[in-house]
Amino acid sequence: MIRTITSEQTYPLRHQVLWPDKPLEFVKVPKDEFGFHFGYFVAGEPVCVISLFINEHKVARFRKFATHPDFQRKGIGSQLLQHVFEKAIQSKAVQIWCDARLDAKLFYERFGMKQEGERFYKGEIPYVKMIRVF
Fold this sequence. Notes:
This protein is of the alpha+beta class. The chain has helices spanning 7-18, 76-90, 105-109, and strands at 2-5, 36-42, 45-54, 59-67, 95-101, 114-122, 125-133. The radius of gyration is 14 Å and the shape is globular.
């Protein structure tokens, strides 16, 4: 089940999945409190989280998309991402984008997102910017 949650509720899963070797503070983003945060819950526990930010120009960005390893490749992340796209469209966003880990590029392409620009790195991890215009 998908629920709206607080930014603080995303932190444990963000930390465990995305940056387990960094301090918890590393998974917090500026203006987290102004985003929309969603979790997919199984047996009362969040197993997938994502955060959506929409700026004054109606450009949406999702960040810190994390699915617990035991629940990956089961369609949960796809359902949550679809929910975020719908929320962005309802909010009149004109496009949505993310910084995607390179190994997730094909996943995002299935949602109509396209790479924009060149590969870049956050630490040792390669990323690409993925974008979809509505």
